Amino acid sequence: MGKIFTPTADDFPTTADAVVIGGGIVGVATAFWLSRAGLDTVLVEMRDGLSTLTTPNSIECFRAQFTEPPMAELALPSIKVFENFAEVIGLPGYDISLSHQGYLFATDDPGMVDDLQAAVQQHRRLGVLDSEFLDHDDLLARFPYLSDKAVAATFRQQDGWLSTHEATQGFAKGSSARYLLSTKATGIRKDTKHPGGALGVSGVETTRGTISTRTVINAAGPFAGVVGRMAGLDLPLEMVRRQKAFISPKPQIPQDAPLTIDLVQDVYWRPETGGAYIAWVDPDESPGEPAEELPLDWDYPAVVLEKLIHLNPFWEEIADDLRQEDVHPSAGQYAYTPDDQPLVGPVPEVPGFYVNCGYWAGVMLSPEAGKRIADLVTGVMDPQRNLLRPTRYAEGIVYEGDSFLRGRH
Ligand SMILES: Cc1cc2nc3c(=O)[nH]c(=O)nc-3n(C[C@H](O)[C@H](O)[C@H](O)COP(=O)(O)OP(=O)(O)OC[C@H]3O[C@@H](n4cnc5c(N)ncnc54)[C@H](O)[C@@H]3O)c2cc1C
Predict the structure, then answer these.
(1) What span, in angstroms and rounded, lies between the C-alpha atoms of 112 and 153?
(2) Which residue among 168, 226, 259, 363 is best mutated to probe the pocket of ligand 1, counting the most ligand atoms within 8 A of its Cβ?
(3) What are 68-92's pLDDT values in tens digits?
(4) Whole-model pTM?
(5) Ligand 1 center–CA 133 separation, angstroms
């Protein structure tokens, strides 16, 4: 059973086989797999709990509907982990509130129909056999809350959402790693005792002391660039604020609906305990500094509602009667890379330093990404097979991203 605690001078670990920096879902999943591989693993988290920064601000969805092979390679096995979570973590009955209510990517633009059909064909090539292309009639028959303007969609019933809190805690509990809370990494130590005399990782300095180790994984979410600089690296990352709002329960919200995305307006909503999450992935939001506190735009929920009404007219009646206390906004940051796909794997300039960062969909990719790190650290995976290696830009092996809903065109 993993130990989650705020260390004192008496129980602060001074050595570890591997140190993970960052206790969001990505770091905790990584620590889970590293400890499962037999490594004495320590995770340091600067805040006073696991999963308290970006992860709880997501809308907690997962999908197999990717068109980029490297993303599908992470997403599909990750979904299997979510679907068999109690068994994977070894805690019978453990519940992550998995819901298979589906993902619906809908459009009212006839010019996008070919793209949607092509996306479903690409899903097939990537091993996703149960996504569907829906034309106007299918769409309205299956999802009668949609506007008659909708012309087509892709849909997969088995996509859905889960509790990120339970998933993160489950990975921690099911591991044998130690999770140090209120412990901030402040520096990466290096020495030349690596094969070939290269200047590589020798430890992690924290606000509570130094942990000697030969393996460090940077899973610091929006702060991954800051942690990279501690190792002397300039990682290609950009942070962009993403807001969302929870709308209190309303009878008009169809509770059996899937996550419904309007591909033209860049807005989406999904039901949640009688209410709903609503969001707009504003393509013009500028990159900013990594932050723990993010400002909220007072008019954001109104803008989202206005855009949602377009394909989901039932929102109009709700918007008309909405009181301020019905709207609960929040924000987190997406971490973008040049190809909008994460950085996963060792950084050759600094032996022993690994990255697992650069996510705008880190919840749904975290189980397999964490496993991949463990497989790379232990030599189970050939680094050349890892399409998400951070050296891919220099190597020219980038597969251009064209996934829907990533927020960049
Ligand atoms: C509005 C919104 C909706 C989203 N919806 C989805 C969705 O439906 N599905 C999906 O898959 N993804 C979604 N995402 C993206 C998803 O939330 C993130 O990709 C994911 O949570 C990233 O997890 P993480 O562990 O990398 O980051 P985080 O959860 O931010 O964790 C990083 C941790 O590192 C810690 N840290 C940083 N620096 C240090 C340091 N120096 N020392 C110690 N600790 C440090 C931080 O305190 C933090 O706890 C959404 C994001 C937003 C904002």
Answers:
(1) 9
(2) 363
(3) 999 999 999 999 999 999 999 999 9
(4) 0.98
(5) 31
